[in-house]
Design brief:
disordered N terminus; three-stranded antiparallel beta sheet; alpha/beta
Length: about 250
């Protein structure tokens, strides 16, 4: 059943939004209500500190939920992003690709306080995409003959050896988008179009944090990166720090 109705006018068809289709929540805490529980798995979008759902991470920290498995390319820095959840020791396990910018991560891992499942970056991205696409497993060359392949099925295709990797899914996906409409259609901006789009499809629930909200019809349909069918709630952030993870500038003469 369609959740909108149409009325004819001189300009053509116009969608009239019903309350049930409006996915905008007042804040991150309201959006997360009823979705958090101890021992859950959360996918968190972003690459370094670019395109991370800052407000949703803070709300998860403040909720006190614990023993979380977090699937994310990295784990923020010591005092920002997912690093805040390490400070409070809410994360039990990380499924990641790169974690080199976080001293607390290193300490917890070496002290065996934190479990870690390392993935080559492309493999991590494809495992998440496969989870959203309903593909349970796939074969990839990357990692064959290394510790990455230990305990995994391997197979030969056309004279090349491949490693079987399984899909990743989550109880909750939190993503960061540039723009959204009230139905939850999302557009990401530049580098934020990294892990966010695939994570939006791989969670049982997806909550999107956005910089700008427009009315339905205000987005170019050809530019939409994540269709609203994948999104359960939208939160508009009131400010974004957008920190630079490692500032590098060239020397001047």
């Amino acid at each position: 059943m369609l959740a909108c109705r149409f009325s004819v006018n001189p300009g053509g068809f116009r969608a009239k939004l019903k309350p049930s289709m409006d996915k905008v929540k007042k804040n991150a805490t309201e959006a997360l209500a009823g979705h958090l529980f101890d021992g859950m798995t959360i996918m968190s979008g972003g690459f370094g500190l670019c395109g991370i759902p800052e407000h949703l991470i803070l709300a998860i920290r403040d909720s006190g939920v614990k023993d979380i498995t977090v699937i994310s390319n990295n784990c923020g820095v010591d005092d920002f992003g997912l690093g805040l959840l390490l400070q409070t020791k809410q994360i039990k396990k990380m499924v990641s690709s790169y974690v080199g910018e976080n001293a607390e991560f290193e300490r917890q891992f070496l002290e065996k306080e934190l479990e870690l499942e390392f993935n080559p970056q492309g493999t991590l991205a494809e495992r998440i995409r496969a989870g959203g696409a309903g593909i349970p497993a796939f074969f990839v060359k990357t990692g064959f003959g290394t510790v990455i392949a230990e305990g995994k099925e391997t197979r030969e295709f056309d004279g090349e050896m491949y490693v079987m990797e399984t899909a990743l899914k989550a109880d909750l996906s939190i993503v960061k988008a540039w723009k959204a409409d009230r139905w939850g259609n999302l557009i990401y901006r530049k580098t934020a179009r990294n892990f966010n789009p695939m994570m939006a499809t791989a969670g049982k629930v997806c909550i999107a944090e956005v910089e700008e909200l427009v009315e339905v019809g205000g987005l170019d349909a050809d530019r939409i990166d994540t269709p609203s069918i994948f999104v359960d709630s939208v939160v508009v952030g009131d400010h974004f720090e957008k920190r630079i993870e490692r500032l590098t500038t060239r020397e001047r003469a």
